[in-house]
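INFO  loader      accepted 1 record
INFO  loader      residues=158
INFO  predictor   begin
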Amino acid sequence: MNFPRWAQDLSRADFLRSAGLYVTPERLFLVRVRKDLFRVAVTRAEMSQIPKTEDPASRGQAFGEAIRSLLPHFDHAREPLYLCFSPELTICQWIFLPQMARENLSQVVEYEIERHIPFRREDVYYDFLRAGLKGDKLGLILFAIPKKILDEILLFCT
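INFO  predictor   done
INFO  writer      dumping tokens
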């Protein structure tokens, strides 16, 4: 059967298989998902505990062991991996700026970020989305995660 061109392109846009690593302060979850155009199914879910400890070296070691225990269940050649973080580990903040900031938005956010989050700019990875106007202000949603959290994960995922 011949499908129209748009239908062929649509199947390429759909994620057929993927995996997600969901990170909380005490646990890591690896979830494998199969998706078609009309449904999503979890094909496998694995969880690994991260023991609580105040020692950063011990926590890093426990974190590494947790990731290594989950990665054999992930087919990196066939599945993209999405990192998701619990709200306890990230910052999601609405900020409002004058509309004239639109011309240099990245620079304005870089300058303003420390006024909106409890971290120094150089200690976080951040990005933002334009979210429309509120009165005469430009609304943005600011996303940030401390570098030490993401770097710890990336160290073991590469």
